[in-house]
Every structure is written in C-alpha cells, then in structure tokens.
Amino acid sequence: MSVFKKSLYVASAFAFVAPVALGAGFQLKEQSGSLQGLSFAGASAKADDASVMFYNPAGITRLKGTQGHANLSLIKPSAKFNNDASGFTAAAVPAATAHTVNDGEGGDAGSLAAIPAIYAVSSMDNGVRYGLAINTPYGLKTEYNDDWVGRYYAIKSELMTINVAPTVAWKVNEEWSLGAALNIQYAEAELTNATRLNNVALADALTTLKGNDLGFGFRVGTMYEPTDSTRIGLAYQSGIHHKLEGDVKTILGSTLIGAASTDNAEAKLRTPDVASLGVYHKLNDRLAVMGELAWTNWSVFENLTVVNSDTGSVLSNVEEKWDDSYFMALGMEYNPCNCPNKRFQFGVAYDQTPVDDEYRTFRIPDEDRLWVSFGYGQEWGEDKSFTVGYSHIFVDDASVVENASSTAKGVVSGSFDASVDILSANFKMKF
Q: Are 85 and 413 in contact (CB under 8 A)?
C-alpha cells in the first residue's frame, strides 16, 4: 500500500471512530408522545399505553384488552459553531503547500429527523401478556457545509437504528408484575469528511464511510403497585455489542477527479447499560405527579479500535473516556374538568452529558441539557386516544478543540450554540 493511500485510509479510520461513538452517545428517549409532554418523567411507571414496554416491559400488564400504538417524533437540533482560533502550525505545513483552515463556520449542523415507533399488546391470558415494539432507540443526523473550517474532522454524520423487541410480561399478583424483552437491533451509518492533500494544486479528497451490523440485547423490568394510586417501576436495559462492518472510500479531487481508494474496515462498539427508576402517584381525580431517574453506563465506552477487515491491522485506537451520566425528570398531569377524556401535561428534566470537554468532537458537540415540556391528551370513547407533546431542550455552550495526532487536519477551536426542539404525537386504539 502506498504511503499516500495509507495516509488517506488512516484519516478515514479516525473519522469512523467518532460517528460510532456518536451513535451510542445520542440515545433517543423520544419513543412516546404520551410521555413527551412530561419530559419522560415516570416513563418506567406511568404505564397507560403500549409504549411503556420500551421503558419497562412489566408495565404492559396494566393495559386492558388488545392495543395498538403508533408514534411519530419530529426532532430538530440546532448546532451553530463559533470559530475562535483555527489553523495549521507553520512547522507542520510549509507555506507553499498549506491549505487554509480559516473558512466558514459550517452553518447549522442540525437536521430535521422523523422518528417513528409502533407498539402492539395482546389481551391478557392467565396473567400473561405479550407485546411487540418496533422503534429507533439511537440516531443522529448532522451536516456541515463542505468547505467549513472543521471539514477535516466532520462533514456529514448520519446514523439510523431499527430495534425490534418481542416482549412478555406476567402479573404475579395485585401488587407485582414482571416483564422481559429481547432487543434485535440493526444499525447503519454513513459519514463523510474531507481529507487534506499536501499539494496546493489539489482540492480536498472526500472520504465516505458506510457500515452496518445486527446486534442483540435484552430488557427486564418490574412494577410494584402498593395502592391503586401509586406505582413504582424499575427497569434495566443491557448494552448491545455491535461490530460495524463496511467500507472506506476516498475520492480524490482536482486533477485526480474519479480516482478512488476503497478498503474494508470494522469497529467494535458496546452500547451502554441503562437502569431506570420511575414513580407515579395520583394525588386526586384531577392531578397526578411523577418522576424518573435513569443511570447510563457510559463509562464502558473507553475507546474504539478500527481495523482493516482483510489484514487485521489496527488503523486507529482512540481513547474516548466517557463518564456515566444521569437523567432526572419531574412531571405532572392535570385533568381540568374532572373528566377522564382530557389531560394537560408539564415536565422538566436535567440530562447530564457523558462527554468531558477534552474529548468532545464535532460529531457530537454535546453538553448538559435542561428540558422543558408540555402536552395535551384527548380520548374518544373507550377505544381511541391521541396525545401530542412538545419539548424545548436548552443546551449549555459546548467548547470543542480538535487537535488530531496528524497535523494535516490542523487545529480547530471554538464553541457551539445548541438547542433541540421536539414535537411528538401518538395515536392509541383498543381492539
């Protein structure tokens, strides 16, 4: 392999690492419109529709009859980069061949994404109930302008997952229920970045990475109902071992348009375990309060190793050193007219980032977040209901300093102004 081709390949491998981390780090809680307006407070305990099986499979024992549940969430993140100090060192890049890194700030990296989810639950038979969930627990779509200042680190990052979870739950007695689910998860990623060439006459090369995998995990939960007004849910979701396999393709620019190199690559990834505790309490016929505490075992994400699938040679071994993180939410649901068919929701949440400043990248410019949400639910008769919820997420300013071991990428330093808006709606029908 030529030195030129190898340098392009190694640059591509480093680009592959960050998006894989991003897929694991960008967990999508938005799987239920009936919980969106509560900032997902009480997600493990509220259990009033089939979407509870994603948060706590034991909760489906509370449902009546056979039910179907369809959900759609529209997520619009905004991430605008403010360039502070970026460039190449004179010693590393001779002036005669230097490409400027002081270009645009990339525009808004956030992109609108639609996240669907479908749930179905059977009627209870001898205390046992079966369910099926199909949703997207991880995902991301960000894209910067092609000529932006950080193009050698990231241009496009797109991750999609599909999770199919057959579920079973058993109502042990009037107070206790148990549940379990098998997670069958498909993951697919496409990522691009520019690769700088040490020749001023040549335009940047474009590296595109594609990979996919099928992995397996599980989810278990229990529900305790000490009174008719109070319930407590406890759930655990295992991590999933993904081995993303795909190819790395680099297309050269300028006078070498059309020339390309393609190699096979793979990277192992273990998504984190998640443990959650939810509490729901109905104060009276009009008002209920709820809370949620979730712990995510991000510390398992210490590094990612990318290897050549054909030769087994290590292309990169990047330390990530993420931390465990917590999600805490409080919410309330109010019935204004003491009638069962209308309800208003309000919720707040604190979402802790697992990423330390020194390890933050342009693929995931994440910081601590504060959620503020509200929602409205309406029932029609005994067999249909509709709920819509909206959340605005305030994200702390995120500083990023990218300084790759290869000085060909330059040093890019700045901060992000970021926020997220989410609109979620669900429709439930009983049969």
A: yes
Nearest to 393 by CA among 138, 136, 79, 42: 79
CB atoms within 10 A of CB 335: 17
d(CA 366, CA 296) in angstroms, rounded, equals 15
CA atoms within 13 A on the CB side of 271: 31
Q: Which residues of 120-149 are buried (b: 16+ CB within 10 A; e: fewer)?
A: bbbebeeeebebbbebbbbbbbbbbeeebb
Q: pLDDT tens, 55-66?
A: 999 999 999 889
Rounded Cα gap, residues 347 and 371, in angstroms: 8
Identify the CA nearest to 367 among candidates 348, 391, 395, 329. 395
Q: Is the pLDDT of residue 86 over 80?
A: no
Per-residue b/e over 298-325, b at no fewer than 16 CB within 10 Å?
beebeebebbbeeeeeebbebebebeeb
DSSP string, 15-81: HHHHHHHHHHH-B-----HHHHTTTTTTTTT---STTHHHH-GGGGGG--S-EEEEEEEEEEEEEEE
Q: pTM for this structure? A: 0.86
Instruction: Kindly state the tokens that stand for 396.
Output: 């702390």
pLDDT band at 89 (very low <50, low <70, confident <90, very high): low
Q: Residue 111: its pLDDT value, please?
A: 80
CA–CA distance, 45 with 190 (Å, rounded to integer): 36
80 neighbors 105 (Cβ within 8 angstroms): yes
CA separation for the pair 164, 118 (Å, rounded): 10
Identity (one letter) of the amino acid at 84?
A: D
For each of the domains in the chain, give its residue range(s) and CATH number, in order of start: 3-430 (2.40.160.60)
CB under 8 Å to 411, separation ≥6 — which residues? 85, 86, 87, 88, 89, 401, 402, 403
| Cα–Cα distance, 19 to 265 (Å, whole number) | 14
β-bridge mates for residue 262, sequence order: 249
Q: How far apart are CA 19 and CA 156, in angstroms?
A: 9
**Per-residue CA distances from 289 to 41, 45, 333, 364, 403 (Å):** 9, 11, 6, 33, 47
- Compute the chain's Rg from CA coordinates: 24
How far apart CA 177 and CA 83 sit, in angstroms, is 53
Alpha-carbon distance of 388 to 374, in angstroms, equals: 9
Q: Which residue has the higher pLDDT, 258 or 64?
A: 64
Specify the pLDDT at position 338. 67
